[in-house]
Fold Hydroxymyristoyl-ACP dehydratase.
Amino acid sequence: MMLPTVISQQITGDHLANIDLLLPADLLWFSGHFPTCPILPGVAQINWVMHYANQLFGPMPVVKSIDVVKFQRPLMPDDKVTLVLNWDRTNHKLIFKYLAHGEITASSGKIALCQ
């Protein structure tokens, strides 16, 4: 399995979404990263940002750059997290953050998309 379990999602307008996710221990992303203490790789987090943005806001332009990314707290098997997406159409930026336990920022960043 490559995607987390969606518990719930809330979409506000055409630019803001909150998606509550469960990270099952059997996610392929945890396999081998790291064997004694599995954590969710950053590339998986970015992949999910683009996946859910495409699903909820419609087809996204191609990624131009990934800016200001911070990984502040590891995401681990069986964690429940909230993915917050904000699609700034005017500036072609997708702003995201993952919240652990509903309030602790685990990671965040801005993805610049081609115009």
Remarks:
- The first helix runs from residue 42 to 57.
